[in-house]
Write a structure and sequence with these properties.
Blueprint (H helix, E strand, L loop, with lengths): L19 H4 L46 H4 L17 H11 L6 H8 L5 H6 L12 H4 L3
Length: 145
Amino acid sequence: MGEGALPPAGSVIGAGKSTVCDECPRTRNVKTIKQFVRVQDVKTIDPQICLLEQGIPCNGPATRDGCGSLCPKAGAQCIGCYGPAEGVIDYGARLITAFSSVIDSNDPVEIDHILDGIPDPVGQFYRFNLAKSILRAAKSAWNQE
């Protein structure tokens, strides 16, 4: 008893290799965001449509799957507790890209205004992994091969 081999260093246990969005049954590709809102400020959340595409900041696009998308299924945004999905070098950068992709505008001023609606961008994008971000890293951090 208690003599089993440990998994190799760096192993991920209990999580998948893709993203929470890949597990989520909500429909994506609406891409009509004109503002981001806090989930508690939404009167009615459509149970069929992606939370991010309803303007609710959801970290599913960059978060490792394996949870069964429990939070989004319950109408709560993913906060990223499983960490970055496999292959994601900078979690926050991946989320900024995902959030920007659902905005329905080509006007830089309007896009800035919409993104300003995210109340705490650093907390949203780097809640669990600011220390591993490449925000202030040397160029050598960009070449992670």
